[in-house]
Every structure is written in C-alpha cells, then in structure tokens.
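USER:
Working in pairs, take the chain set out below, taking as long as you need, and write a paragraph about the fold.
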Amino acid sequence: MSKQLILLLTLPTSPYPDQRPGTNGLKKKTHVFQSKKNYLHNFIQCIFSSIDLRDRQGSTMVVGGDGRYFNSTVIQVIVQMAAANGVGRVVIGQNGIMSTPAVSCVIRKSKAIGGIILTASHNPGGPDGDFGIKFNTANGGPAPEAVTNKIFQLSRTIEEFAICPELRVDLGTIGKQSFDLENKFKPFTVEIVDPVESYANSLRNIFDFAVLKELLSGDNHIQIRLDAMHGVTGPYVKKILCEELGSPANSAINCVPLENFGGRHPDPNLIYASDLVETMKSGQYDFGAAFDGDGDRNMILGKHGFFVNPSDSVAVLAANIFCIPYFQHTGVRGFARSMPTSAALDMVARATKIQLYETPTGWRFFGSLMDAGRLSLCGEESFGTGSDYIREKDGLWAVLAWLSILAVRRQSVEDIMTDHWRTYGRNYYTRFDYEEVDLDAAVEMMLDLELMISDRAFNGQVFTVGEKKYQVEAADNFEYSDPVDGTISRNQGLRIIFKGGSRIVFRLSGTDSFGATIRLYIDSYEKDINKLFQDPQVVLAELVTIALQLSQIHERTGRRGPTVIT
C-alpha cells in the first residue's frame, strides 16, 4: 500500500503595509499575528521568497523560539511553508525552544541557509503581550539591511503563499521525522534536537570548564545566583551551570520557560530584575546574573547588589580577555561597541593598541566585521555582549566570561570593577527610556533637535549648569561607513560631544511593537582617582539638565519623566 502524499497548496493573499522588519525582526502585539488574515503567512512567505529559489531547494533551515505564547503554533506554520517552498530539512529545538545564541550556533554548525527565531526579545509575552519573527542568515547573524529591505518590499506586493496545511510535526520527541510531499522526489525532513547540547559543546571549547567547576563547586567555591526570568535560558543554565559545573540547583531560579514569563517583563535590568537585586543585597551571594526572554542579554551583579553597567562589562571583558582560553588560541582581532554605548571600551582599546570600531545599534554591524576577521569582542549598552564564535549577543557566554575572570583573578566583582576604573578611568553613564510615546511627536522632536545641532553656531556653544561649564566640540547625526563593504548607514542617532569627552545622545528605537521609544544616553569620562566612586545620577545631573533643556522632551512628549532609567 503506497504512502499518502502531503498536498502542496498555493493560496491567494493580500499585502499589508506594515511588515518592515527592524533590527530585531518584525515585532507586533501577539493578536496582530493571530487575528489579521494571513498576516503571519505573508511575512513567513516573504522570508522564504527573499532567498533565491536555487539556494532554497533542498537547503537546511533552523527554527527556534523563546517559548512565549503562540510559539508552537507559529512553528507548525513555518514547517508547513518551509516544505512548500523547497526547503529540504528543518532543524527545531525540542518543544520549539532554542535560545537566540543557540540558533546562531546551530545555523553555523549545520551549514544552514538561515534560521527563523520566534521572539520579541525582552518584551512581555502572553495573549496581550508581544510576538516577533526574526530571520538570521547563513552566517548565523541577523539579516543585513539589504535582506530586510527585500523582505519588506516583497510584503508590499505579495499575492500568494505556498503551504502544506496537512503537515504536522511532533515537537516533543527528539529525532528525525520524514514526510513525502506531492510533486517532490525527496522526502522533507524535520529534525528535533536537544536545544542545549550543540551550543554547550561550543562553550566547552571556549572556556575551561574544569577551572569553572572548581570555582563553582570546589573547596573554596563562590556562591552564585542566576535568574532566567522564565525565559529560554533556564534549561541552558540548569544543564551547564548546575548539572555540569556543579553549582547548586537552588542557585538558579525561574528556569522553567513560561508563555507569559510568569507575568514578568523578561528584561535583565535593575527595574525588571529587582527581585534578584534585592536578593544580592543580602550579601549571601558573590555573583549574580539575569537573562532576558530569548537569552541574548545579561545583567551582571556583584556581592551586596553591586551593579556592573553593561558598557563597563564589555570593557572589563576586553581588559581581561586572555582569562578566556579561546582568545589565548585565536588572539584578539578587534573590539567594537555600538555608538550609544559608553566609551569605556575605547580606553581599553587605546591602552592595548587594539583596533576599535564604533557602529550603529544592531548586532548585524558586528557580524559584518566578524565575518571579515576584524572583530573578536563586542558589546552594547542594552545589556548585550558577545564574541566571534557566533553572530549574536550571548547572555550565558558573558556570564561564563565573567566567571572565568573571577576564577583567574580571585577577586570580587566589585574589586575587579574598581581596579579597572583606577587603571583606565571611569565613564559615568546612564540611559533614560521614554517608551510608547506618540510617534509623530517623537519624530518632530528629533527633527527639530537635529536642525538645532546642525547650525554652525551650535559648535563651540557653552552650557553652564551650576558651577560647571560644558563646551560643544562636535554635534551630528551619526552615520557609519562599513569598513568591509562600504555600506553607509545614516540617521543612527543625534550626538552632542563636549570638550573632555562627555556626550549626550538621542536615538529613536525601532524595537517596540507599539508607539515609539526615545532613548537618551549620557556619558561622561572621569580620570581623577578621587572622583571615581560617586553616584552616576549625581555626577551626570548637569548633563541631564542640558539634554532636557535642548530637547524639551517632557514638554514635547507629555511625559513627566522616563519610563526606565538604567
């Protein structure tokens, strides 16, 4: 008796005007993907259509998600459409779970044509929360702008999509599943894999697990506290830190991925990970860390809740990079930071004579440099850190990097950080987020501000606040010329740079599913050893005052203050 063939259908559809992917894919409220007819199918089809048909045929695609609400349903649709669009094999994390860094890792190891990651990053989940679809290319990194632009253009003219609606996959059972499709000579294959193992193997080749095991479970082991915030990192923390490296099971909390992240906002900062901060303040733990929904961001804390600013974190990793065995073997090719990130990394690069790159926000810019062999370590102020072994930021990698430094130096987090400031000086830094503001008001404010700082008379202007004077040295709308391919990215944020190195930066963020987010960044360098241990908000108060006066952000947005201060 012959095996029944699965039908392949081509169905008509109509385009939507709002499917432009941002730096982290297409993010919308979950109900948009659920309720708008073919909204989900349209975007997935446009991802497949952006890949040349000859490259798609028989190719491998990786799929994973952070476990948020609607994750499993969307994976079934992606598989049905992958089969209909000529993909030969789809690799999926068990139960649809796979962290963003792990997807990047598996793409590279399996020589896949790309991957689709289902996440809205650190945004809330659930029926009333957010959902996102992100396409990573064959290098394992976020799709470059040329690809996302192509996807957007296709989404504006799409007329039909291909799908095998009868195809159903068992996401819970590890192993291969084969399906015979109508008009296809070769079976379509789905491989369900352990989402942790391939990624963990890479980490074993980067870090000295024997040294880390001694640090976490030896005779003089430290006490750690890790909060996965009910995101995707939980199973990775349990498997690697607890089971393999010997940290007690109760050192890791909120490790079961939940569709709504337990009703929490899975964003590892002082506001949303406040439970961890309070626990660390007790002095019971030497090291603490939190991770976001999809596992690419991290927050580092020391004993008594000592907070490591993300800009400082990447600088410390750079200064101690040879505590990590991987870099002892590969050497260091270069450092990079996003433009809004503080210049703390610049000080390390200058002292070590290692090339530094300043890029726009978005990990794809780092990926281009890594592919060209120019970059080893990079970071963003938005709690993202990573290296060239994959093409995504990686929260767990950052934690293991910090633990490697602790193991070599045998100092506390706070002592390592304060030694760093004494050596390189300190960049006092803060970020104000004004979330979900009216888009028109935000755009108008940014345009008026750009007009003001572009005036020739603005350069050299002196601002006096109290007893301090700040003279403008330069001001612009940051643009970046990629040193690899010459691509120019314009309108990446407004910069006001003062003599002495202090900076004010304004940027419109494209990562929210509703409204606009205005981000205000303040960065001020201090090398006087007697002024290294002050409250950042006090030190930066004058610059904040100047920023508010110039932008009139509260008056223009109707907000009394920022939603979040980091």
Notes: The chain has a mean pLDDT of 95. The radius of gyration is 24 Å. The first strand starts at residue 9 and ends at 12. Residues 338 and 360 are 5 Å apart (CA to CA).
